[in-house]
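Please decode residue identities from the backbone states below.
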């Protein structure tokens, strides 16, 4: 039976019932969560707090008629948690700000909260509160609090000339998954890894922690907007350049009309929403870098160079500048449309 939303208090009670009672981290220092004017957090000695927030907006990041509501619930938290993974930190709790139409306070909301609850439980990140309002468009903002040992956070700014550039997973899978969805390949949905990666991304939290424990990365960030754009951000933060070898890129698997290498290469270079890790490792530590870790394959794709140029070394041996053509909301088309 669908619950009728008479007012905002009814909506808040529903969110609290669906999230707080069945999710969260047992070890979280969250003293007081949903239900008061604000949450109470007890800082732990010897830890730095990690704070991040992420928008998830209808027609910009997802489409109501294309993306299942449980996927939207899962992904709005997973996206924000990827920023925590990017610093090799541990997520602890999150705040949810949700604006939805009155018409979506029934079954749509139930399924949205189901996906959000699964993500909360899977990644050990407890709901702490947030805000709700009514809107003709679905607007979601998630703020995550995490923690890391003092001065142990991994940053974008540590790459040095001579370091090797590495990535986790296959790049471009989520982009191909979106393109399949847009073409309404519904019959293939249950069997296509790319679609699952687009709908239900898994932030590389454990991989980042294991890399940090092994003291391998000199710099680290997540790949959310495409390799070409995110690599530029890492290089700018570290005041370095880079050479990427086309032949070494871990391309997505061929799927139907996306089988050509050219299409898969473009997806790997510029496709967003992968939420893999991009990191650099000193050459002297290469022997300690496994081929896979925490369930993710690891691939060396290039080298950090002095200067500021980012170059793509093609399979033909020709070098060309790597254009930063990843996802930019102020210039690109919508991720979910």
């Amino acid at each position: 039976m669908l619950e009728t939303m008479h007012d905002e208090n009814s909506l808040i009670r529903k969110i609290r019932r669906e999230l707080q009672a069945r999710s969260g981290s047992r070890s979280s220092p969250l003293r007081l969560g949903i239900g008061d004017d604000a949450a109470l957090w007890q800082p732990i000695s010897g830890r730095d707090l990690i704070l991040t927030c992420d928008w998830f907006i209808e027609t910009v990041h997802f489409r109501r008629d294309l993306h299942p509501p449980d996927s939207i619930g899962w992904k709005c938290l997973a996206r924000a948690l990827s920023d925590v993974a990017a610093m090799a930190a541990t997520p602890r709790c999150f705040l949810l700000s949700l604006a939805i139409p009155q018409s979506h306070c029934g079954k749509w909301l139930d399924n949205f909260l189901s996906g959000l609850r699964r993500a909360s439980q899977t990644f050990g990140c407890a709901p702490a509160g947030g805000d709700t309002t009514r809107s003709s468009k679905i607007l979601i903002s998630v703020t995550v609090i995490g923690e890391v040992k003092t001065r142990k956070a991994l940053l974008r700014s540590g790459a040095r000339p001579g370091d090797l550039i590495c990535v986790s997973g296959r790049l471009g899978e989520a982009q191909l998954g979106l393109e399949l969805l847009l073409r309404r390949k519904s019959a293939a949905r249950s069997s296509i890894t790319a679609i699952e990666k687009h709908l239900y991304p898994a932030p590389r939290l454990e991989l980042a922690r294991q890399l940090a424990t092994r003291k391998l990365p000199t710099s680290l960030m997540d790949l959310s907007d495409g390799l070409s754009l995110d690599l530029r951000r890492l290089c700018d933060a570290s005041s370095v350049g880079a050479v990427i070898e086309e032949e070494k890129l871990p391309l997505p698997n061929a799927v139907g009309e996306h089988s050509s290498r050219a299409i898969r290469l473009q997806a790997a270079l510029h496709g967003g929403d992968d939420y893999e890790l991009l990191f650099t490792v000193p050459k002297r530590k290469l022997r300690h870098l496994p081929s896979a870790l925490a369930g993710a394959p690891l691939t060396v794709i290039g080298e950090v160079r002095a200067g500021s140029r980012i170059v793509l070394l093609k399979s033909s041996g020709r070098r060309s500048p790597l254009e930063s053509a990843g996802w930019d909301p102020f210039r690109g088309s919508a991720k979910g449309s």
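Observation: Residues 216 and 288 are 8 Å apart (CA to CA).
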